[in-house]
Amino acid sequence: MSGSRTKSGTRQPLTVVLALLVTLFTTSVSAESIRLQRPNLLVGDLDNALSLYRDVLRFKLEAVRDLPEGGYAYELFEIPSTASLRFAVLSSGSQINVLALTEVTGPGSLMPLSGDARPGAGLVLEVSDFDLIFEKLEQMGLKVLAENAFQTSDGLSGRQRGFRDYDGNLIILYTLADGGEPE
Amino acid sequence: MAQSNDEKPPVRFQRSNYVVSDLDRALPVYTDVLGLDLVFVKESAEDSYSYEVFQIDRAAKMRFAVLGTPSQPNCMALTELTGVVLPDVPLPSRSAIVLECTDFDGVKNRAKAAGLKVFEEGNLLTKDGRKGRELGFLDHDDNLIVIYLILEHPE
Q1: What pLDDT is recorded for position A111?
Q2: Are A14 and A74 in contact (CB under 8 A)?
Q3: Residue A28: predicted pLDDT
Q4: CA distance B82 to A49
Q5: What is the pTM of this model?
Q6: Which of residues 63-92 of A touch B (CB under 8 A)?
Q7: Chain A: nearest CA to B131, how far in angstroms?
Q8: Number of Cβ within a 10 Å radius of residue A138
Q9: Backbone phi, then psi, for A172, in 5-degree steps?
Q10: Rounded Cα distance, A65 and A63, in Å
Q11: Which residues of A touch B10 (CB under 8 A)?
Q12: Rounded-to-integer distance, Cα B84 and Cα B57, Å
């Protein structure tokens, strides 16, 4: 049986050591007073938006639900009370519920943002299928920006490229060279 | 050890970015009020890709700040644009960042003390039955920040 050795020379079962590590890790995480759960983007057509975020970018759709009339989102986003709201939450891998899309329809629905409008909570996403995604985005008629090579101060390099979703929300995708290993 | 591409999810959220008009004024909202860690601040080069992304004149100056938490390094960024008029946030607001916050009242009080627009607090009920508190407020550039605290989990 594998294990580790204490100062007194007795062996600790590996399971005990692992349990301690898990405890330390979870204590450290839970001790954080703040955690970014997700950005929430307003969209004018949820089905259209899902064709991008779920089908092309490959987020996993967790749930869709109607939001109650007069709920908190109306006040926060200053959405007209005549509009109807649907709310979708998406995940990716271990990032659970990492993105939300709030659909605003009916009277008071959204107009897409123009290119010179303030972009809001721009998303930066790492993707694997960089070229394939941009092929699809161009086929979908979305506004795609020029590609750019980047190198970070800590030695990462890769490619990045921005685009606007159907509602004008700014998204920047990047992929790292050589599997993301620092140079 | 780095994951191979086969192990990586097809997409990974890296960060959100808000545009601000004065980084020195904005940073205390994200560090002192919310409690995020400032990772670094840098001046953007004249050939920065951000000019393409934000479609602004290259005469404008940019600074870029990255923030995070111990378990979420680099999860938030602020891009400062100066030398140009920052467009107003369109209404309805198009986005929010949502943060889970154990020091809910502390953040609320600090946001008020900082003179930020703080909305009335809301009652949170999630799709899986958790109950809690939520609160929205705006930074100095009208970017929407929402914090929440879960108080009850369904049995």
Answers
A1: 77
A2: no
A3: 40
A4: 32
A5: 0.86
A6: 63, 65, 71-72, 75-80, 89, 92
A7: 14
A8: 12
A9: -120, 125
A10: 7
A11: 57-58, 92, 127-129
A12: 8
